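User: Quick sanity check before I run a bigger batch. Here is a single chain. Can you write out its predicted 3D structure?
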Amino acid sequence: MLNAKAALAALWCCFVLALPAWAAAPSPTLDLRQAFSLTLERHPDLRRLPLEQAIVSAEVDVAAQKPAWVAGASLENVLGSGDYRGADGAELTLSLGSVLESPARREARIGFAQSRMAGLDVNAEARRLDLLAEVARRYLDVLALQEEATALEATLAQRGKAADAARRRVAAGASPSSVQLGAEAALARAELELARTQAAVDAARRRLALMWGGEPTGPVAGELLTLPATPDFASLASLLDRTPELQRFASEARLREARLQLAQAQSRPDLEWQVGLRRLQGSDDWALMGGLSLPLGNRRRAEPGIRAARAELDALALEREAGELELRATLAEAHGRLAVDALAVRQTTDKVLPALERAEAAAGQAYRAGALSYLEWAQLQADLLAARRDRIAAARDFHRALIEIQRLTAEPFVLAGRAPNETTP
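Assistant: Done. Predicted structure follows.
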């Protein structure tokens, strides 16, 4: 059974993108929780996990089976010559046999199959986290494009006001017609840019819906500029031991230990036995028969496999060490981006945008009064749009880094009881 609750909890902090807007969102609006649920329910990678578990479970049952009984019949001294012509001297033997398997070999075989089952569970959890992280990233792309479209709509309104002001000044003879044409061209470019962004939003929604094989929905709900507080790097690094990325090595270690035990069990020979009943044609009598056989040289033949299994087990420790270093490097990079992007969002929101908005409004008044050129006003409008886009990009990068940290540590950072406005640094 899929551990959907654990997978959802692992990426709970991503809900900060959607939680503030749930209450006011109309019904066609998609939130991140719905996107997670649809993906967990419909994605083929997750739907096939029960089938893979059934396959490995069947392999465990096969490994637990004891050696089969073998029934046989043999006919001797037939179709010969002389006294053995035809079936006159035929001797019939009925036999029953099996293998006295070493208990250690059977236990090793069962342990190897069970280790595969445990490894499948760890891999399944890692795949769930990877899929949910991809859903969160695609959801974030849609949300960022929606914010950019909102910024472009504001710019379009400003360009429209500038074009109207330019037309009035040209009509009054205070400006040349080139100013009006330039303002109308800037307005047309803003309209085109908004149309392209809206098309990109539709494409991003379609890409998100592909995660569960559905049709594109309406707008997604969320607050891109709400940045949750996160633990320090030392606290995050201490969580890495529980991530599926490293748990996979523990599962693989158990699998390789089971493989070593199975290889060692191969060095112990299995005794084959057989008993039967033989009919003696000459005297028309019946007699019991039996036999034992023991393979020779098992230890010598098993030695290469034992050496290989032991070397694979020893190499896994180095693989885990390298994997942990890579995870720490990725975590450090993502954590470093959080502080930089959060500072960019905060500074742009608190200082850059208010100053540019006041400057743009003052420039509009000055242009209408004839105290400022249109180009200076247009440049301030362009600077304002660039600052809004920079803030959107910084917020998007912050959430991308947070999603990556969540995927690495599989731990939630946002407390369920906190209000959205309390999560902003």
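The first helix runs from residue 4 to 10.

User: Great, the batch can go ahead then.
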